[in-house]
Amino acid sequence: MSLLLSLAMAAATAAQPACGADAIGTSRTLTLKREAAAWGTAQHAPLPTLAPGEVVLSFDDGPRPESTPLVLKALAEQCVQASFFMNGEPLRANAALARQVRDAGHSVGMHGFRHEHFPQLSTAAQLADLDAMIATYRAALGAEPAAWRFPFLEETPTLLKALGEKAITVMSVDAGAEDWLPEQTPQMLATKLLGQLAKSGGGIVLLHDAQDQTARALPFLLQTLKARGYRVVHLRWE
């Protein structure tokens, strides 16, 4: 091994956060192909190769300067990698924060340019939103998007067809904490999440980094998941 390679590897190791035994960590990374697939048992098949007790953490609606950095901090402190499904308008307004999410090792997908009820829109309006979202993603992150989650999980034939033609994977969910509802304590969110995970056995977890209460509760939620024996899987695309 060359000296330069050794130094690069040492620097990369030093850059990794030091997590203690009490951190939940990331147990493994699941890499998916860029293809017209759809996952999440709320609407589709379960994520392939995910074992009982494994969870994929995902966050919608950001990036938001008031709350997303707190989510990133909580994830870093627990050595957890997650997936962020961003809306185009806040992505365009906060491109540097979106790059911070990506540079921290998290996966970034799309959540619609505007958080629309797509079944209520015309075919042309739906496709225009998708085009705007893809263009914003490319401009902010300098890459091609691989995944999409429908706002409100409201799928439409128009967008399913368009996403399939672009080999973009649709991500639904398996469990969540209903953290968009107001005035919830960390314990309330944890109780809801554990209740849904008890039914699903694990899977894709839906949270929202645009919610202040979620950002504040995340350290407790991660500790609770670890205490109950859940293992975090990081989702990436080739």
TrEMBL record:
Gene3D superfamilies documented for this protein: Glycoside hydrolase/deacetylase
Signal peptide coordinates: 1-20
Protein name per its UniProtKB record: Peptidoglycan/xylan/chitin deacetylase (PgdA/CDA1 family)
Keywords from the named record: Hydrolase, Metal-binding, Signal
Coiled-coil segments: none
Pfam families for this protein: Polysacc_deac_1
Keyword hit for Hydrolase: yes
UniProt domain NodB homology: residue ranges: 53-233
SUPFAM superfamilies from the UniProt entry: Glycoside hydrolase/deacetylase
Keyword Amino-acid biosynthesis found: no
BP terms from Gene Ontology: carbohydrate metabolic process
InterPro entries: Glyco_hydro/deAcase_b/a-brl, NODB_dom, Polysacc_deacetylase_ArnD
Source organism, top-level taxon: Bacteria
GO molecular function: hydrolase activity, acting on carbon-nitrogen (but not peptide) bonds; metal ion binding
GO cellular component, one term: membrane
